[in-house]
Structures are given as C-alpha cells and as structure tokens.
Design brief:
Helix content: 40-55%
Structural class: mainly alpha
Radius of gyration: 20 Å
Number of strands: 0
Number of helices: 1
Oligomer: single chain
Largest sheet: none
Order of helices and strands: H
C-alpha cells in the first residue's frame, strides 16, 4: 500500500465531499458549543412529543 498518492491520482470530487462533510461537522459542533456556553437549556429529545398525546 502506497501512503503517498500523486496529485494526478487524487479524486477531486471526493476531496470536495470530504471538505463539505468536515465543514458540516464543525458547523454543528460550534452551534452546540454556543448553546452550552450561553447557559441555554438543551431540550431533551426522546422521539416522542408529550404534547401530541
């Protein structure tokens, strides 16, 4: 297995998808961290809404 791949062998579309995935993960984590730092209560979610019962 060759750990270093030349620039010609890279798949550009795969690199773009990986970048977007990392951006999405960072975006969600930053929003969650902001909620914790502001002291906002994070609502508990169990999949069942008690208002619908």
């Amino acid at each position: 297995m060759n750990p270093s791949i030349s620039q010609k062998q890279r798949i550009v579309s795969l690199d773009i998808i990986r970048g977007l995935a990392l951006f999405g993960i960072m975006f969600i984590n930053v929003k969650g961290y902001m909620l914790i730092m502001e002291g906002t209560l994070i609502p508990e979610y169990s999949g069942v809404n008690t208002n619908d019962l």
